[in-house]
Specification:
102 residues; mainly alpha; two-stranded parallel sheet; 3 helices; extended
């Protein structure tokens, strides 16, 4: 599970360990206990993946005008999310094609 350091707590870490999920939550520095260089490197590696995931959500949110799903039933919501993902995939494919031809 990838998450920002704001989500790091003993309770969340225990729940992840209980479910046998590898925690990828960034470590948090404190005023009198800054992060070590090893912790900073670990956070950088975790943040690369987390930021890529967050960019997808930001794109969908911003490009669709804070799109809010107002459907009744899991099937309809599932189909709407699938269409949103398809739109993102098509836009991302077009962007990659433009970058590779430049």
């Amino acid at each position: 599970m990838h998450a920002d350091s704001a989500y790091r707590s003993a309770e969340i870490e225990a729940k992840l360990a209980e479910k046998k999920i590898d925690s990828q939550i960034c470590e948090k520095g404190y005023r009198n206990r800054p992060l070590t260089e090893e912790q900073k490197a670990s956070n950088r590696a975790k943040s690369k993946i987390r930021s890529r995931i967050e960019h997808v959500f930001a794109y969908v949110t911003n490009s669709m005008g804070n799109f809010y799903l107002e459907y009744i039933g899991k099937v309809r919501v599932s189909k709407a999310v699938t269409l949103m993902n398809l739109i993102y995939d098509m836009a991302r494919y077009e962007q990659i094609q433009r970058m590779s031809s430049a």
